Amino acid sequence: MLELKGVGVEFGRHRVKAVHDVSLQIADGQRLGLIGESGSGKTALALAIMGLLPENARLTGSICLDGRELVGLSDEQYSRLRGDTVSLVFQEPMTALDPTMAVGMQVAEVLRLHYARNPKEAAKYRVDAAHVASGARQRVLSILDEVGIHDPERVAASFPHQLSGGQRQRVLIAMALINRPGLVILDEPTTALDVRVQAQVLRLIDRELAASSAACLFISHDLAVVSQVCDEVAVMYRGRIVERGSVRQIFEAPQHPYARGLVAAARLDVEPGQRLPVLEDFGVDDE
User: Fold this and answer.
1) Distance (Å, rounded) from C-alpha 281 to C-alpha 259?
2) What is the architecture of the domain spanning 1-94+182-253?
3) Is residue 31 within 8 Å of residue 231, measured between CB atoms?
4) What's the DSSP call for residue 182?
5) pTM, two decimal places
6) Angle at 32 between CA 26 and CA 35, to 5 degrees
């Protein structure tokens, strides 16, 4: 479904490198977790795949999605893929959702944008200024119900600030899944949620991915979260993939020094009063 070859991302005049020579594959229906500390290049890689890098970024290498090369596509060509073939769920719903538009209209807009090129489908999925047009309305309410929103009618008519954090995140997931994309990228989708809501959303993500058979790139610094959703894990450090393996292999017997340090920091198997592990303990120079 996704194949990266030698992908690199640099920013600014000084060409600050955020991603270095990354190569990886994700098969149809596979769930790959991408873990690493903040600043390791995870989000930059996701934005590169989505074609959403800022103007001062320079992208090199190859990104092939479902057999199609993405590097070099125009924004118009990319827009036909976003939300349809590949979707991205951001970590902060309040910045991803339009605060001036009812969330039902925002979910329906994903349908409208991808069906507007077909006149018959455009009539079926049109969104008017007041509310979701009748053709898209039922699909919007259906997907909101699928993602666990118990009162989809009320939520569809609500603005983002009128919803809880968990509801807003569910709306983003609904937007990502409504067109049944082949690949879903989730960038820290539960970071802003409390533990109880986080568990609910993770169960939802697991269920919906299974139902749609979509491939998934799950980005997180939380190893426990990744272990609940993913089949395999890739470890990213300073913009590079330093290790990849099954969830069990990475969490029980990591080989790279950084991977060992990351797992040890997450487990915190220390007695009260003992010193906490740091990267240098595993031979990693963190300077």
Assistant:
1) 12
2) 3-Layer(aba) Sandwich (3.40)
3) yes
4) S
5) 0.84
6) 130
